[in-house]
């Protein structure tokens, strides 16, 4: 079993609201996986997860704001779907991460906010690879 997180629709200025859903990896609904750079653990940001405050890294909060749409979106995101304080759970989940990513309908990649307007250069580099 794995957890998937439903990002509830909203504008970029609204509080990020999410809910978790436990599914069987062998029979799970269509989802996207988010691959991102964790970034700094300082100055964590708060999202609502199942109605409770939950701290996430600023880079993940920025990704959630960027990828959130007006409608709900089902994703697998390690920071939200794996209990990071439970070493037993982490040790169980890490070996299946390859399967989690390969079964995703789409893998979204987030490197961070493009403060230097370098996204077109990065996209060209990816096309060239």
From TrEMBL:
Domain of life of the source: Eukaryota
UniProt cross-references to InterPro entries, sorted A to Z: HET, HetReg/Transcr_Mod
Domain Heterokaryon incompatibility, residue spans: 31-124
Transmembrane regions listed in the UniProt entry: none
Protein name: Heterokaryon incompatibility domain-containing protein
């Amino acid at each position: 079993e794995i957890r998937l997180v439903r990002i509830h629709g909203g504008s970029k200025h609204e509080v990020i609201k999410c809910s978790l859903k436990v599914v069987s990896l062998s029979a799970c609904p269509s989802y996207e996986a988010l691959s991102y750079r964790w970034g700094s653990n300082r100055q964590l940001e708060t999202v609502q997860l199942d109605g409770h405050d939950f701290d996430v890294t600023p880079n993940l909060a920025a990704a959630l704001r960027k990828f959130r749409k007006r409608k709900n979106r089902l994703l697998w995101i390690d920071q939200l779907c794996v209990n990071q304080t439970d070493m037993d759970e982490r040790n169980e989940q890490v070996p299946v991460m390859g399967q989690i990513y390969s079964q995703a309908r789409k893998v979204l990649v987030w490197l961070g906010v493009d403060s230097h307007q370098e996204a077109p250069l990065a996209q060209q580099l990816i096309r060239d690879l």
